[in-house]
Specification:
288 residues; alpha+beta; 2 domains; three-stranded antiparallel sheet; three-stranded mixed sheet; 9 helices; 8 strands; Antirestriction_ArdC; MPTase-PolyVal
Length: 288
């Protein structure tokens, strides 16, 4: 791997990690309503992005509050009559491809490469055609009902739960509280409690609990923490009699392993920390 490619991977990973601080990433969203760019990221011509670029652009859209799915280079925006607003920060995405090169044996071989380029969300650009801007979808009251026993279990942990109409789920480290959208806006009760289990696992990492945030205090700590929270969600749901969404969780975990540059040991470390978190949650709940 060349130094240039290594630096590009580091930059992409850093973008994702920076965005995680904004809360629950948008690809885990079993509720209705949106204030963030949760649609599949699209190029200027409507072609969807693929692979790691989806993770990057979804994360940044969530962190910045972008509602448009479209991403454009500075030149593409200009060609469409748009103008990037002064001071707006671009996102780096990756173009993967191959080049043909003659090897020492005189044979042609294909060499893979990764090249970074910069794009802006349509929300950062003035003057684009109307179809490039999306209107956030309002939350819907689907009539999903709470489970009193599950509510009692989560409340017994001592967590502080803040429920508002904001369509976003996250653990606020500074306030030490969990924010959730109303349960009636979720498609299913299992989706609500699975999301709450994910955020409650984050809650265990605080300094006065398991101090996980301190022990894993490096530039990849946030990506690692997402692995812990999602595995903790699956473990906790299983023990509470809820069926975890293994397909979604598997894709979610795979994404964060990619962000950690596919560290094969990360999944084992995260599983160990997730087990400690679930044990802690049960101990807290049983004491009340």
């Amino acid at each position: 791997m060349t130094k240039a490619t290594f630096d590009l991977h580091e930059q992409i990973t850093a973008q994702i990690i920076e965005a995680i601080e904004a809360g629950c990433p948008p690809w885990r969203k079993p509720w209705t309503g949106s204030s963030k760019g949760t649609s599949l990221p699209l190029r200027h011509n409507g072609e969807p992005y693929r692979g790691i670029n989806i993770l990057v652009l979804w994360s940044i859209a969530s962190a910045k509050g972008y509602t448009s799915a479209r991403w454009l280079t500075f030149k593409q925006a200009k060609e469409l009559g748009g103008c990037v607003r002064k001071g707006e920060k671009s996102a780096t995405v990756v173009k993967f491809g191959t080049i043909e090169r003659e090897n020492e044996q005189g044979e042609e071989e294909k060499i893979p490469y990764a090249k970074g380029y910069r794009v802006f969300n349509a929300d950062q650009i003035d003057g684009l055609p109307a179809e490039y801007y999306d209107i956030p979808a309002p939350a819907e009251n689907l009539g999903t009902e709470a489970d009193p026993d599950l509510d009692a279990f989560f409340a017994a942990t001592g967590m502080i739960l803040n429920t508002t109409a904001e369509p976003r789920a996250f653990y606020d480290v500074q306030k030490d509280q969990i924010h959730m959208p109303p349960i009636e806006t979720f498609h299913e009760a299992a989706g609500y409690y699975g999301t709450l289990a994910h955020e409650l696992t984050h809650w265990t990492g605080a300094k006065h609990r398991l101090a996980r945030f301190e022990r894993f205090n490096d530039r990849k700590a946030y990506a690692f923490e997402e692995l812990v929270a999602e595995i903790g969600n699956c473990m906790l749901c299983a023990t509470l009699g809820l069926l975890p969404d293994f397909a979604q969780s598997g894709a979610y975990i795979d994404g964060w392993l990619t962000a950690l540059k596919e560290d094969k040991r990360a999944i084992f470390k995260a599983a160990s920390e997730a087990q400690k978190a679930v044990d802690f949650i049960y101990i807290k709940a049983e004491k009340c």
